[in-house]
Amino acid sequence: MLGKKPAAMQAQGGEPAVGGYEAGSGSNWNGWRAKQPPKANTGEDTVEAHIEGLAAALGMPTNEVASAIASAVRAYVPPASLSSIAAKETGEAVRVLLQEPSQGEGEGAVPGVAAAGGSASGKKDTTGKVVEGIVTGMEAMPPSNPHLLLHTTISASEALSMDVPEPPLILTEPQAEAIIHKHLPEHRQSSVQKLTEVKNHGYSYTSKVRTYIVDIAPQPSESASLSTNSKPSSCFITIAHPPPAGHKPLALSNSLQTTHHIISLIHSQTDIPIPLPTLDTSLSLPSTPSIPNSSKEGDKQPFPYHILLSPPSPIASASILSVAAARRRGILPAQSKESTLIELQIGRFLGRLHANVQNDYFGRVRAPNWDLNLKPAALARAQVFAPATQEEEESYSWQETFTALLEALLWEAESTGAVDLPYEAIRGYLSRAISSFLFDDVEVPSLVWLTGSEEDVYVAVDPVSSTSSASSSESTRTTSSDSNSNPDKDTGSAPPPQTPPTSSIAAILPNLTHALWGDPLLETFFHPPSPTPALKEAYTQSGGQELILFPRQRTKRLWYDLLL
């Protein structure tokens, strides 16, 4: 299957390699032509075998050939056009990619794009063989659904190109302190009192992003003279691996650059109290004596993540708790006054968001420069590969945008076996929904948080009461060095706090990984049995449109539930 490591290739001793290709060094054209083309089917194993066969025939590592294929398809084919792309066009995209200079040579090099080329010499024999192999193999297995074939090719390529998984996302206290010293001038002498990883149990969870809440403690000498820094304060630090250059994933997942751009839009066009964070994509931090293996103080040290740092707030982490955690602990009953007031605030925020932050097209939110963290010359080179991609991805039909996203997720779930669902029946019902234009009643694309939920909204609580909440693995995991408890141990047996939270929102996590331009009804906050009467009333009074007027809109919401 796609997620498994491929079997070792029989590339030596003259034995046939996998996928029907003859093993060779790549210098003999006939040495790698297909003896017997792969069987005509759309199975994942066929695509895997084809890619492995190409690698064996060329005498090249499988991951290099796979990376070239995945890069070519992604650079050349926007998700909305996967069903119309041909094998020869994909091969031509590979040809362009392999004829570019290899990565790491000059300012214009695009990392990872020329992986299968091997060097900057532009070996035309290797290029021709990879291109011809892709075309031959893909044409030898004509699928009934070309959309599925291209998705399978991409996923197989990416699965085969992963030698090792990405390293885990971990932030240490010295690193957090260096980030604060670098970006918060008023806290350059402060220290990190506690570092806590935010554990998100909601729909917005993703393994590609980690958010920490940092308690900042001023130096003793400061607190005596600087009253502004003597109060407890905290901030959020979000880290993520930098996206590969030119990589535009099929699944909806926004980079930190895009997240920063989205928050900038919200900050400039609404009064929603989400502060504008600082984005750092330099991949470096100032060296400090507290960081192991760092050079002398003042120099830079490498840091493998992109950073999103929120401004500090005059409140300690022990004094805030997510709305969802407060409900689980029984201190925020659904019908309480505090709960109603919080729902009113959430409704107002969503109404202002959907009414004031709008766009001309549906789909992914694009940050400037397509999220490519490249220098101008490299960016220009990358855009040559797919000059029309930006226009093609600007969909003016919500039905087209939503169904493409849903089909991609259905295929991913089916191919990996992650979820057991009646996929053929679902696709049949989806075809009927499309033919009745079920999703085409959305005229104006609004910014949709999508997976935002009560897990991402924090309220102020009594510090003593919230201590047991914050220490529970249900909501957070403390990484403070002075903690004597096991950070992964569930401490939920502690007596739940009895003091209800305040009726105002204290913080909103900068978690917009899945935000997009779409239908406001798609929001998780509108997932049945929500919205509550209070949230719905505040939403419509703040600019939001009536969510459900006709029975077909309830049917549409069922499809949105399936997406979640």
UniProtKB/TrEMBL annotation:
<feature type="region of interest" description="Disordered">
    <location>
        <begin position="102"/>
        <end position="125"/>
    </location>
</feature>
<feature type="compositionally biased region" description="Low complexity">
    <location>
        <begin position="108"/>
        <end position="118"/>
    </location>
</feature>
<protein>
    <recommendedName>
        <fullName>Aminoglycoside phosphotransferase domain-containing protein</fullName>
    </recommendedName>
</protein>
<feature type="region of interest" description="Disordered">
    <location>
        <begin position="1"/>
        <end position="43"/>
    </location>
</feature>
<feature type="compositionally biased region" description="Low complexity">
    <location>
        <begin position="465"/>
        <end position="485"/>
    </location>
</feature>
<feature type="region of interest" description="Disordered">
    <location>
        <begin position="464"/>
        <end position="505"/>
    </location>
</feature>
